[in-house]
Amino acid sequence: MNFVRNTLRYQLPGEDYRCDVVMGVPAGYDQVSATIPYYHSTYVLVYPRGKGLDGLKSGTDLFALPPETLNKLTIGVYDRSPASKWLVTHGLEARTRPYPIMSPDPEQYPGEIIEKDLAEGKIGAAIVWGPIGGYFAKRVHSVDLVVLPLKSEPGVKFDYEIAMGVRYGEREWKETIEKLIREKRAAIAQILREYNVPIVDEHGDLVQ
Fold first, then answer.
1. Looking at residue 177, what is its pLDDT?
2. Domain coordinates of the chain in residue numbers?
3. Exposure check for the chain: N or C terminus, fewer CB within 10 A?
4. Number of other CB atoms surrounding residue 157 within 10 Å
């Protein structure tokens, strides 16, 4: 809660700001002055190989699964996320297990839905933001997890361009960061690949 106010905008009298840039904000995010994007990703469906979902090639294939498969499937999603809206729109709310998008428990982290519950078989699939799904699926060795990017559709947006945020009014600092983003695109892309972050183009298609 109030992350930007407590970091980028926080300054005690006689002291410097707590930070000068915030990584990973949606392009156009109005609480900061957002830079040009440095990557474009999307939500993903993560599922274990060999458990009945191997034929999925796209998100819409999920709705064509045989009823006996769907009726046994539990899909973990974070509440108030595009994933929960998408499943409700397609009549699969009964197949979802909601997780709180915010928690006061410092021991909880976004990837545990993948690294713990999905890996341990407590849920049959999960829909999470791509960088979370890609990174934590790669860390799991007890089961082979598939990461399937999802495409936006009318009424449900899955893919987002991601930027960095600075304080309003700091034009030169913003220009400095944007110059670095342009100059270091190859290095940034390499880091994203190493962390298994799914990258999509302007149409939402996966960039290999």
1. 98
2. 3-39+161-194, 40-149
3. C
4. 14
